[in-house]
Specification:
The protein has a single domain, classed as Beta Complex (Beta-clip-like), CATH 2.170.270. 9% of the residues lie in helices and 26% in strands. It has three helices and 14 strands. The strands form five sheets. Strands 2-7-9-8 form a four-stranded mixed sheet. Strands 3-12-13-6 form a four-stranded mixed sheet, with no helix packed on it. It has a two-stranded parallel ribbon with strand order 1-10.
């Protein structure tokens, strides 16, 4: 968990631990780790061996200053260059934990706005509430733009040789206003859909950019 400024992205909150790879809760079992490190035939998307560790050159954490933005006064993640449709943006790192753990562990993660399912069969998820990387700053598109321009996607990390979650640019035509549109322009905020289940579990409803609530 890096602390010095050279190993953390610009604008990284000093109260959070920055991760260059996943962290694993002590309660995760050997069997679950084995499942996480077994690649299934349907896991086509990949994080390449060539992807550098540490802060990404493709994104920057940006303070939200527009009063109309749902995350006004907090932060979002913006592209530092044009990103092609369907391309990998950044892995999603956090603490890998188990749904099979004791109730006190699960209650903590159930309240998190940064918890993503990573392996349903093995009952594993990854939570970036207290430790993670730039991907934790990706906001939901609602109240920001008409459609998401990115998505969370399960993939295989060739560097770690295990299942991972990552943020990808939406493929060309998917949720685009017109067929053939796609990609993310330099300076554009990266936004995903948190899904109806996320908003259904929160009283605040639309207008909350949960990607920054826990800061």
């Amino acid at each position: 968990m890096a602390k010095d400024s050279k190993a953390t992205p610009k604008n990284w909150p000093p109260t959070l631990s920055y991760l260059m790879k996943p962290s694993y809760a002590a309660h995760v079992t050997k069997e679950q780790l084995n499942a996480l490190r077994t690649r299934g035939p349907d896991l086509a998307s990949e994080i390449p061996l060539s992807l550098p560790k540490g802060p990404s050159a493709l994104v920057k954490i940006t303070a939200i200053t527009q009063p109309s933005h749902p995350a006004h006064g907090q932060a979002g993640l913006c592209a530092t260059r044009n990103l092609a449709p369907g391309s990998l943006i950044i892995p999603y790192f956090g603490v890998v934990h188990s749904d099979l753990a004791l109730p006190q562990h699960n209650r903590e993660h159930e309240k998190s706005d940064y918890d993503l399912r990573i392996d349903r069969d093995a009952q594993l998820a990854v939570d970036a509430a207290k430790a993670g990387n730039e991907a934790r700053f990706v906001n939901d598109y609602r109240g920001i733009r008409d459609r998401p321009n990115a998505e969370f996607r399960e993939c295989w990390d060739l560097r770690l040789k295990e299942k991972s979650m990552a943020v990808f640019v939406l493929p060309a035509g998917k949720n685009a206003a017109r067929k053939g549109e796609g990609g993310i322009a330099k300076g554009e905020e990266i936004c995903v859909s948190y899904g109806k289940g996320f908003w259904g579990n929160r009283k605040d409803g639309d207008g909350v950019a949960a990607g920054d609530v826990a800061q």
